[in-house]
Amino acid sequence: VQLVESGGGLVQPGGSLRLFCAASGFTFSSYPMRWYRQAPGKEREFVAAISQSGGDTAYIESVQGRFTISRDNAKNTAYLQMNSLKPADTAVYYCKVPLSRTDYWGQGTQVPVSS
User: Fold this and answer.
1) Which of 72, 76, 79, 112 has the fewest Cβ atoms within 10 Å of its own Cβ atom?
2) Mean pLDDT in the chain?
3) pLDDT band at 105; cut points 50, 70, 90
């Protein structure tokens, strides 16, 4: 199982980024996907989740209306579209897949939001 995040980088407040999570080693379309983030000095927190088909999504309140999680099962890829970014969104962003009794994580992608 491998998850590889990409798309991070320095962005100004109010800007947008699209994160990618490329998955391999399992049947991607059979599992929900989740995004988490960890800000400097803080615990990792849940950001967004999407069901296997993409029909159901959930978000932490602080990103509701600004972030959109999606997936392309044909490309084995999950996405996190982030708009209206704030300095408080600065973090390392991780994708996660819950497989049976084990969670698998990517290595993370950094998103600094600063002017």
Assistant:
1) 72
2) 97
3) very high
- From residue 14, alpha-carbon distances to 30, 82, 113 in Å are 35, 10, 9
Contact residues for 51 (Cβ-Cβ < 8 A; gap 6+): 32, 57
CA dist 25 and 45 (Å) reads 25
CA atoms within 13 A on the CB side of 7: 18
pLDDT at res. 22: 98
Tokens 């990103």 sit at which residue? Answer: 63
What confidence tens digit (pLDDT) does each residue in 1-51 have? 999 999 999 999 999 999 999 999 999 999 999 999 999 999 999 999 999
Distance CA 84, CA 11 (A): 10
Place of tokens 């199982």: 1
